[in-house]
Amino acid sequence: MDIASAKDNKTTRGPLVDRTIPTESRAEARTRAAKLPALELNSRAASDLLLLSTGAFSPLEGFTDFKTSSDIVENMRLPGGSVWPFPILLQTEAAKAKDLRLGSEIVLKYHGEPLAFLTLEESFAIPHAEWAKKLFGTGEAAHPGVAGFLTGGDVSLAGKVQWFGDTAVLGLDENWLTPKETRAAMEQRGWKTVAGFQTRNPVHRAHEYVLRTALEVSDGLLLHPLVGETRPEDIPAAVRMRCYRALLDEYLPREHVLFAVLPAWMRYGGPREAVLHAVVRRNFGCTHFLVGRDHAGVGGYYGPFDAQHLLRSLAGEGLGIEPICFDEIFYCHRCSSMASKRTCAHPRSEHLILSGTEVRRRLREGLALPQEFTRPEVAAILSAAAREVSVAPKI
Ligand SMILES: [Zn+2]
Prior knowledge:
The longest helix is centred in the middle third of the chain and has 14 residues, at 237-250. Strands 1, 2, 3, 4, 5, 6 and 7 form a seven-stranded mixed beta sheet that branches. A five-stranded parallel beta sheet has the order 10-9-8-11-12, sandwiched between helices. It is globular and about 70 Å long. The protein is of the alpha/beta class. The two termini are 32 Å apart. It contains 13 helices and 15 strands. Helix 5 packs antiparallel against helix 6 and helix 9 runs antiparallel to helix 13 (376-388). The structure holds zinc ion. Residues 332, 334-335, 339, 344, 346, 350 line the site of zinc ion. Zinc ion is lined by residues 332, 334-335, 339, 344, 346, 350.
């Protein structure tokens, strides 16, 4: 780890896009919206819309057009040269797109509630097969990200957005902070170096070790769990949130941790998605991003260190945030502490490593998780959740 590099030119938060209509003009926006053609979004598009509008996807100001999307797919760059790994598409059915007029305004709705205007600049057919292979490294429909992409709609609508909606429609509460708000909170605390962290898994001792290590060498931590759409077999966001809260309340220093949710959905895009997660954290004000093994990967499609290699290769090439990479973390009985291959000399037989399958089995059967693996407060939350879903256990 080389936290000193936070002070060089590799990290830059950059300007934030703001595509939100001021509060005082929102009533007028709603009145205007009532007269315009509308498009109902799914939860993924609604997430992307909010992230675009609030600057989480800066420098993007709207859903990407064909040229921009192609440059991203081919080069992982925007036409201006900035690092950007995934086109932000507004996928829809050709039948729904055909009556929409280019240059006109459309209202984007979610659950029937108007959220934003889209100025329709382009409507284009998505070259699904070609882009899936380049984005995900596979065209197989067994990959959940590819499956979502292939079935999400044949046409994409592009254009700038302007948000006037209520984030409660997306199920968000006071735990949602915009990039502007997290940057202000970091500034207020006087943090110069901030490490961003996310996982879509419950927080075990291994994650805690990563958080503590980051805190040893940076001013603050943005604990930023992803709460958008994930696979049904992943742990529900509400349960993960309770686990984070328990850790925060009982074990971590409040004054050095900022806790907020990221309403992004999982593409399961491995290395490319790791880049997206890093760039988004840069926009939220982080100087560093914590990356474990197989970040954003799924089902063996990516090598355990592919995401780390890609992030490191881009760190000095315009990524704007420094990755801090970790190997597998475990409890070592001989060391009597958490460790990794980099810090422990002992054989694997000394290491406490439980697979996700084993953790789920123990919880289902009401068996305790060792406290070297999970804090008792977190284990209690997971056990309770496992009992609640005992018909179809997901924990
Ligand atoms: Zn050891």
